[in-house]
Design a protein that fits this description.
heterodimer, A: 241 residues, alpha/beta, Rossmann fold, 10 helices, 36% helix, 25% strand, globular, B: 326 residues, mainly alpha, two-stranded antiparallel ribbon, 73% helix
């Protein structure tokens, strides 16, 4: 298995000369699900936003399939096969479900076929296609956000806490849905606070703290690592006294 | 009877002109979320531009080129669009209240220029003498008033139709998307900066159309016509009618203009003489009260934004798609 998305020595932040991410390295294998976990303020969301071009990168590189895409403009991301699903406000509440999907499908050549495929993949969206997206439940909203991101048949999906604010049952369903994307050949990079559930569905895991890499490895190994809980809950560095 | 019809025609002509301004603002605020606090600047640009290009020559005064009305109007509209483009590039990075303050400043600056650049704008006394379109051919003042009303209504209908087409198209959908969430829209491949600028310029050009009609109607324009109250009136019209709904925008224009002229008439007729001195301020208070009451009572306006009809129809066949939906 080869890496599709590679992050090398990345530094990024919202304010000049005040990086949140410091020398972060990361590799995401093709058609795999990689999860980034870490305590609050670790820089998880900043990392995914920096990859998506929403946070300025001051050093380091982001490589997609061998091509340097560092600092890509967010509106050009889709054309390169990257899709980003924000944590919140990831749908347009006042537009209908169909309009939400049509927004993205506009750029897809076989959009009529693709819309039918998406409805087949997410039947609850088909049933409510003429309703405003604001009328959907939390889980259905995430489903719509995922469907919108999938519209352009992306190679890589960047997802920022898709289970945030959902009940445990719905959160598990959303993460299972995320997992199922890899079977369709989509590579997923996921940020999650819901550590156990995320590790259950992930192939590989990176732990960030204070904007730096702390640990990484196969998700199953991380899940059984006694240090993880301590790191995740307390923000303590591996090897620190 | 002719007097009453003439008055109603006058009322409807002004309401129609203002409805065009409100439609322009609705594109900016209702559909794109741009808080334009400087409506009068773009209305004024259309008015002064049309007057300078199409007005009669005056000694010592720039302009008075006596261009045919449609060309003069086009020039005024382009001037409004050019100013909006420059202002937009400079200010559209700002959000909501900051954008409102910045654009309000533009309106104040425009009014100040109109008041002081006498060689260009006639200064405080304004510019007068505009050959109204087809006036000489029609001759009769009463009939001409009705014809002018018909022209304004035709322009209003054309602007309404064009905007309905625009907002129901994929372009309009993209505008509504960036109104709701710029980051999400950007991550879905939209370019909010470009869309916001385009919407701002198109909306301002529509305001410029109204300014050109206004100057043709009155054959006069002065800085008095660019008072900040006009901006607040237009905002009240949109808030009352319903932002994000073009029919609401037109309804609001007629309702608020009716309330404005009706209150002025009632105060002059029934209020004590001492109170009549304060007719203007009382009307200002009325407009402010209407805005506050509507925002508290029915913030979505009398005709709220609706699901786009085109999509409601195509989506009625659940599970099937239609090329027309894109």
């Amino acid at each position: 298995m080869t890496a599709l998305l590679t992050i090398a020595a990345l530094e990024a932040g919202y304010v000049r000369d005040l990086p949140i991410l410091r020398q972060v390295n990361l590799s995401v294998m093709r058609a795999s699900l990689t999860v980034i976990i870490g305590p609050n303020g670790a820089g998880k969301s900043t990392l995914i936003k920096a990859i998506a071009g929403l946070v300025p990168v001051s050093a380091g590189t982001v490589t997609l399939d061998g091509a340097d895409i560092t600092g890509i403009r967010p509106d050009q991301m889709g054309a390169l096969g990257l899709a980003y699903v924000p944590q919140t406000d990831n749908i347009f509440r006042h537009l209908t479900i169909r309009e939400n999907l049509a927004l993205v499908l506009r750029r897809v050549p076989d959009r009529t076929t693709r819309l039918d495929e998406l409805y087949a993949l997410f039947p609850p969206l088909a049933a409510k296609q003429a309703d405003r997206a604001g009328s959907l439940s939390g889980g259905q909203r995430q489903m719509l956000a995922v469907a919108m991101a999938l519209s352009g048949r992306p190679r890589v999906m960047l997802m920022d806490e898709p289970s945030a604010g959902l009940s445990p049952k719905i959160a598990a369903e959303v993460l299972d849905l995320t997992r199922s994307l890899t079977a369709q050949g989509v590579t997923v990079l996921l940020v999650e606070q819901n550590v156990k559930q995320a590790l259950r569905v992930a192939d590989h895991c990176y732990i960030l703290a204070e904007g730096r890499n702390q640990l990484d490895g196969p998700a199953a190994a991380i899940l059984s690592d006694p240090m993880v809980a301590e790191i995740y809950l307390g923000g303590k560095r591996v090897g620190a006294a | 009877m002719i007097g009453l019809i003439s008055y109603l025609a006058f009322f409807a002509t002004m309401a129609g002109i203002l409805a065009i301004v409100v439609l322009g603002l609705n594109l900016q605020w209702g559909y794109t979320g741009l808080f334009n606090g400087g409506v009068v600047a773009f209305f004024g640009a259309g008015a002064y531009g049309t007057m300078i290009l199409g007005g009669r020559p005056e000694p010592g005064q720039f302009g008075g080129f006596e261009w045919p009305f449609l060309f003069a109007l086009a020039g005024g509209v382009l001037l409004a669009g050019a100013i909006a483009w420059i202002v937009g590039i400079l200010t559209l990075r700002l959000r909501h209240d900051y954008l409102a303050i910045a654009t309000f400043g533009v309106a104040v600056a425009f009014e100040s220029i109109a008041r002081n650049a006498e060689w260009l704008t006639g200064g405080a006394k304004g510019l007068r003498g505009f050959p109204r379109p087809l006036e000489a051919a029609i001759g009769n003042t009463f009939v001409y008033g009705l014809c002018f009303l018909a022209m304004v209504m035709a322009v209003l209908a054309a602007v309404y139709w064009a905007l309905q087409r625009l907002v129901q198209s994929p372009y309009g959908r993209a505008l509504r998307a960036i109104r709701e969430d710029e980051v999400a829209a950007r991550s879905l491949g939209k370019n909010p900066t470009r869309l916001r600028l385009q919407s701002f310029v198109i909306g301002s050009m529509i305001m410029g159309v109204a300014g050109g009609l206004y100057v043709a109607f009155y054959a006069f324009v002065s800085p008095q016509d660019l008072a900040p109250i006009l901006t607040f009136q237009v905002w009240a019209m949109l808030i009352v009618g319903g932002a994000g709904n073009n029919r609401g925008a037109v309804l609001g224009a007629f309702l608020i203009w009716g309330a404005w002229t009706g209150s002025g008439f009632a105060l002059s007729k029934f209020a004590p003489a001492a109170m009549q001195l304060y007719t203007g301020p009382i009307q200002y208070i009325l407009i402010g009260t209407v805005i506050v009451v509507m925002l508290l009572w029915r913030p979505q306006g009398l005709l709220p934004e609706r699901i786009t009809q085109r999509f409601t129809k195509t989506a009625s066949k659940v599970g099937t798609t239609s090329k027309g939906a894109f």
